[in-house]
Amino acid sequence: MDSDGSLSGTPGTPGRNMSTSSFLAPSDRILLMVLVGTQSDYIFLRAILEDENFDIRQFINRDFFEEVWLKLTRYARGRSGGRTTATPAFIDTYLDDYLEATDFFPPDFCYGQQTSLIEGAKIFTAY
């Protein structure tokens, strides 16, 4: 919590508290880790509600959480590096609804790819 009583990266306040430089402060990374977990849960619940035969096991992997991390930052994506486009497309199906429901504004993050690899592995391990 910041000295003014607000959380870093408070949803709906773009650029107010969350670092938008090429790196994230430790508190911002923790906030994003929580948001990745929350968004992942949101995506899974929506998918299960829409299709009772939804196979969640195909998405419980490091790549999925890396991709969610990147989607929660406005990372300027280059080439996909050989990754399948199915995971980003699946996340995009629910991303706008999630962002609207939470009023979260993704921060700019120039070098998110490297961080997403580390944070995606951490989140997958914790999940």
List keywords for this structure.
127 residues; mainly alpha; 4 helices; 53% helix; 0% strand; globular; disordered N terminus
Written overview of the protein:
The protein has 127 residues and is mainly α. It has four helices and no strands. The chain has helices at residues 26-50, 62-71, 86-102, 112-126. Helix 1 crosses helix 3 and helix 2 packs across helix 3.
Mean pLDDT: 74
H/E element sequence: HHHH
Q: Which structural class do the helices and strands define?
A: mainly alpha
Q: What fraction of residues sit in β-strands?
A: under 5%
Low-confidence stretches: 1-22
What form results from the Cα inertia axes? globular
How many domains in all? 1
Radius of gyration: 14 Å
Number of DSSP helices?
A: 4
Major β-sheet profile: none
Strand count: 0
State the helical fraction: 40-55%
State the gist of this model:
By secondary structure, this protein is an all-alpha fold. The protein is built from four helices and no strands.
Produce the secondary structure layout.
Elements: H1 26-50, H2 62-71, H3 86-102, H4 112-126
Helix pairs in contact: 1-3, 2-3, 2-4
